[in-house]
Amino acid sequence: MCFAVTFTDQLIWGDRDFDSIYIHRIVTHPDFRGYSFVKEIIKWAKKYAAELQIKYIRMDTWADNEKLLKYYNGCGFTYVGVVILQKSEGLPKHYEGISLSLFEIIV
């Protein structure tokens, strides 16, 4: 299991980019899928955000991945909406022109 954490995400969250911890690039080896590791990440993020007095845990994923969208809702995230990236400078090339679904948990 690997994931990254940031404290800003202006290109994706725009004006909503404040008081947040952002979880990115969650990757699980296929042999370890199904063990609810995302829920463990969320538990850690809630504790960490509370310690730092951060209000939101946020993440994004491809807007067309219905299975993953349902999974994140099942993990406690609230669906916030879709954003179509207009600017992707500073992001990996595969972010150019894509639609992302946004999710958050209020701590």
From TrEMBL:
One of its GO terms (molecular function) is acyltransferase activity, transferring groups other than amino-acyl groups. It comes from the Bacteria. PROSITE patterns: GNAT (PS51186). InterPro entries: Acyl_CoA_acyltransferase, GNAT_dom. It comes from Pedobacter agri. This is GNAT family N-acetyltransferase. CDD domains: NAT_SF (cd04301). Residues 1-98 form the N-acetyltransferase domain.
